[in-house]
Amino acid sequence: MNNTARYALFFIVVLLSNIMQTITGFAGTVLAMPFSIILIGGDEARLILNILGIAASIGVVILNHKSINWKEVLKICLVMGAGMAIGFIIIHFANVSKQILYFILAGFVILFTIIGIYTTFFKKEKELAEGEVDKYATIKEIALYAILVVAGIVHGMFVCGGPLLIIYATKKLKDRDEFRSTLSMVWIVLNLVNLVRDIIAGAFTADNVGHLMTVLAISLAVLVVAIFTGNLIAKKLNKKAFMLITYILMVISAVSLILNACGVF
Q1: How far apart are CA 16 and CA 71, in angstroms?
Q2: Total domain count for the chain?
Q3: Tell me, what's the pLDDT at 47?
Q4: 3-state secondary structure the chain
Q5: pLDDT for the residue 191
């Protein structure tokens, strides 16, 4: 497949994944990343999708800045930031082949899918009786912070720790506007950290900066179309149906990445 075809498919991936992100509120990057790695390579995919994540979040923060829970922003950024440091070390300093990293990403995507299907379609929240104390509250709180650390590791490696963060956020942020605005602020901070890391690591060079800017400009235009389209569809169609489609696509993307790592295509 020639480069023109690869990038055309990449822009389609950006479009479809962000339509799903707009409708369901999650999984845009984790859905796009495996396909993007296959099409344009891991380093470029991580850079472009990271910047798109910042752009998509800025609009939400501007419109809903009064709803941001700054205490949770600080807490999440600190805990996930520690995990991201581990992810940075694995990516840049550990002697791990790209094939192994791709298998790891595929495993996380499948894990996210299983968790998502369970929480969306099967899990039922058990309500405590009046005056009843949850004897597992401390263990659950520790587990939530452990999830944040793992989310940071995944985000530092692949820029797609969102599904794990959502597990934490759904327990801590009950109001819809607070949920969206707080998580968007978190992504701006953490993705900016990723961007600075990439710049320091030499992601932009005299040889590739023109190419990257062109790809980024087209991707941003596609992102705007995706958000507009997703908002129109969200008003008319069943959200759970789209969530199921998203989970199916996540499995397909993970399997595709595994096959690519195995040299099948």
Answers
A1: 33
A2: 1
A3: 92
A4: CCHHHHHHHHHHHHHHHHHHHHHHCCCHHHHHHHHHHHHHCHHHHHHHHHHHHHHHHHHHHHHHHHHCCHHHHHHHHHHHHHHHHHHHHHHHCCCCCHHHHHHHHHHHHHHHHHHHHHHHHHCCCCCCCCCCCCCCHHHHHHHHHHHHHHHHHHHHHHCCCHHHHHHHHHHHCCCHHHHHHHHHHHHHHHHHHHHHHHHHCCCCCCCCHHHHHHHHHHHHHHHHHHHHHHHHHHCCCCHHHHHHHHHHHHHHHHHHHHHHHCCCC
A5: 92
Instruction: Write down the pLDDT at residue 196.
Output: 92
Query: How many other CB atoms sit within 10 Å of the CB of residue 251?
Result: 15
Structural domain range at position 72: 3-261
Contact between 233 and 23 under an 8 Å Cβ cutoff? The reply is yes
- Residue 187 burial (CB < 10 Å; 0-12/13-18/19+)? buried
Instruction: Kindly report, residue by residue over 83-105, the tens digit of the pLDDT.
Output: 999 998 888 787 878 788 888 88
End-to-end CA distance of the chain: 11
